[in-house]
Amino acid sequence: MNKTPFDYFIIGLNHNSADLSLRERVSIPETKMLQAQRQLRTLLEPLETEQVILSTCNRTEFYFYGDDLSNIFNTTLNWLAIYANESIEKIQAHTYKREGKEAVSHIFSLACGLDSMAMGETQILGQLKSATRISKEFGYSGNHLDYLTQKAFNVAKLVRSETNIGKQSISLASLSIQLTKKIFGNLSNCDVLFIGAGEMINLCLNHIAEQNPKSITLTNRNAERGLDLVKKFNGQYFPIVNLNQNLESFDVIISCTASSLPLIGLGAVSTALKKRKNRPIVCIDLAVPRDFEPEVKKLDNVFLFSIDDLGAQIDENMKSRLSSAEEAREIIENNIEEFLVWKEKRKNVPIIQQLKIKTETTSENEVKNAIKKFEKGIPIDAVLSELATKISNKFLHNAYVALKDQNSEKYSEIKYWIKKLYGIDLDD
Question: Is the per-residue pLDDT at 64 higher than 50?
Fold first, then answer.
C-alpha cells in the first residue's frame, strides 16, 4: 500500500471474519483500553494520526485518520499479534481493512446495526458512542474522527426513524422479555433472578430493569463481580451455592454462565414448584452448554426457553428487518456521498483561514498607519483615500504581476481565474 493523503482507515476482526476463540484473544476489556490506546499511539508516533478503538464480544476494530496507511496497518497488526499472543499470519488472515469511502460506509452501517450479528440491534451504537467519547476525552481522537462518528450517529437516528429496521426486536434480551410477558402480562409483579455476570446477563439486566420488576436478584461464582453488577440496579445478591434452595422465590429466572454442566436440575425445579404451590416459573436459558437440564421442560407450569427456542422467533423477526435493510442502505449511501462532499470542502478550511488572517493583518497595519497620520493633523478625507488605495493595491499586487507575464504558459488560465475571483465580466 502506497502512502496516501490524509484519509479514514479501519482495521478489524468481527464475527464474520474470525471465530470466537480468536475474538476472545484480541478483545480489549475496558480496564485495558487506555493502556492499549497509549501503546498504539506510541508505536505510531511521529505519524499524525487520530484513533478510536472499539472492542465488544463480536468485534475489535481500530478507526484511524492519518496519511501513512501502510505504516498504520502494519504497526497495528504487529501490536495486535503481540497483545493476543498469536502469529501475525493468523491475525492478518482474519483481519479486514477499509479505506476512504469504504471506511465511511463501514462505520455508518455499523452504527445502524446492519453489520451486527443481530441485524438492527442498538447495543453496538451505544458501544461506539462510548468508545469515541473515551478516545476524545483522553486526546486520542480529534476533529476528523469526531466529524465521522457524529455523522454516523445522525445516520443511525435517521435510519431508525425512516425504516422498520428496529421495530421487531431480535436481541436475545428483548425476546426474553417478550416471552415472559406472554406468561405474566408484565413484570411489575415478578421477582427476577439472574444467574451469571457476563455481557449477556448485563444486557438482560438493563432490559429487564426498564420493565420495573418487583425485584431483581443475581447469583454467580464471582461474588465481587456479581455484587458490582447488581448494585447498579439496586438488586440483591446471594452466593451460587445457595441457588437450589432459593429457586422457589422467583417467577423469572434468566441464566447465562460458562458452566460445562447444568446448574439446575429437574429435582430442584420440581421441589421449588411444590413450595410455590404450582405458581408458574419462566426460565430463559441463554447458555451454551445449557444451564438447565432439558427434562425441566416437561414440568407443568414451567416455561423453559433455550437458545434453540429463541432461534425460531429470531428468524421470523429477521424477515421483517431484511425487508427494511435495503431502505437503510439507500439512506446510508446518500449520506456517504453527502459526507464525502462535506469532507472535500473541509480541505479548503486552512486556505480560507490563512486568507482571513492575511486580510485582517494587512488591514490592521494600514489602519494603524492611517490613525498615526490622522493624529498628525492630516485631513481625514486624505487619510481615508490613501487607506483605501493602499489596501486595494496590496490585494491586487499579485494579480498585476501575474498579468504582466503574458509569456507564461498558464497566462490564459491566470487571466480566467483573476476575472472569476474578482467578479469581472468574463466576456472579452
Answer: yes
